[in-house]
Each structure stands twice: as structure tokens, then as C-alpha cells.
Amino acid sequence: MNRKPPSVQIIAGRWKRRRLGVPEDARPTSGRAREALFSILQKRIPGARVLDLYAGSGAVGLEAVSRGAALAVLVEKDGRMLRDNLARLPPPREEIEIVAAHADAALETFLRAGRRFDIVFADPPYGTSPEALRARAEGVLEPGGLFVYQGDRGGEGAPALAGLHCVERREYGRNVFFFFSADPAARPSKAPPDLPGSRTKRSEPGPL
To answer: Long-range pairs for 200-205 at CB < 8 Å and ≥24 separation?
Structure first.
């Protein structure tokens, strides 16, 4: 019997119900967990610049743009699935940038170029060393920005990220989200403060 290839669905916004292909070796965030994540972040999404590391299908970054984010940069070492999924969506699609590179190399390039983001999401594959995230996470966040790390229930938990505090933890089935901020009093469900330098300059595309 032929089995349909795995897919996920954009939940809300201008691309609502559009389906996205999933790489065979990926473990996509469940629809319930993704919906809960965006319910938490809803006040931070409009106009935000989002970095989706280890993007897989791109579901998180594309969901963010569907809901009003200004930019989503999708980082995956093999960008073919991301390009296929982007082609499935009706234009305009100028808010999406695909970076076909390992997350560590992309982070280093963003740091050198001074690129910063309002929301950074990372869902590393099993066995991925967190060293690059530990050292570079703070450097790619805008003032008032939020770093979201996804792990698995029963896993090793969230890594310590230099310069950032784990301000909240949420669990949805096997999916666990850890929210980091430079401000220990930050709350993911609240809009970030209007800080000098925050969102004043669009994160321009840079070569990798």
C-alpha cells in the first residue's frame, strides 16, 4: 500500500491550511505544540524578524510570516525541502530567506555581519552539540529578543546559554519549549519593551 509522504500544516494567517513537506529524517513539532507556541508568542510576532535554526520543513518560520512576521530566515544544511515548500505557497514570499548551511556556520556568519533577530527558534536534531548555541545565541538576539529552544520530554533539557536566562519552560506532549532572554524578568507572552536599537534596522540578507 502506498503511504502518503509526511507533511505538516500551517495553522493560521495568510497561508492557513497550506501543507508543507517534511524531510524523512525530521521529527516535526506537533501541530498542538506549534499552536501553543504561537499562542504564547502572539504579541511578539507582528513585525518580528525570526531566525529558524535547524528548520527542517520550515514550519515554524513560515508560520511566523503567515501570522505577520516581517522576516523569517530558515537555516537548514540541505535547503531543497525548504525551497520546495516555499514554492507551494502563494506569493508574495519576499519575507522568506533560505540559508542552506549548517546552523553553526550560519550563526557565525550572522555574528560577523551584525545580523540580529527578535525571535530565534532552535530545534536541534538528536545528538547535536549545543556549543555553538551556548556561545553565539545572545549575539544574534535583538535587545528584548527571545530565544526559544525545543527539546524532548525526558531528554537532557536546555543548555546553558551564555548571557541568557531561561525565563520559562512549557511542555506539550513530547515537545518541551525553553524560553531564554537577556532579561531575567522577561515573559514570552508579553510584547518586548521598546528599547533603543530594537527593530530600528531590518536584518538585511548576507552571503554565506
So the answer is: 202/49, 202/70, 202/71, 203/49, 203/71, 203/73, 203/115, 203/116, 203/117, 204/115, 205/97
Structure confidence by residue, pLDDT tens digits, 113-143: 999 999 999 998 877 777 888 889 999 999 9
Kindly report the pTM of this predicted structure.
0.90
What domains sit in the chain, N to C, each tagged with a CATH number?
7-181 (3.40.50.150)
Which grid coordinates belong to 89? Answer: 505557497
Contacts of 82 (CB under 8 A, 6+ apart): 55, 57, 58, 74, 76, 98, 100
Q: Let me know: does 43 contact 68? Beta carbons within 8 Å.
A: no
SS3 for 203?
A: coil
The C-alpha atoms of residue 37 and residue 148 are separated, in whole angstroms, by 9
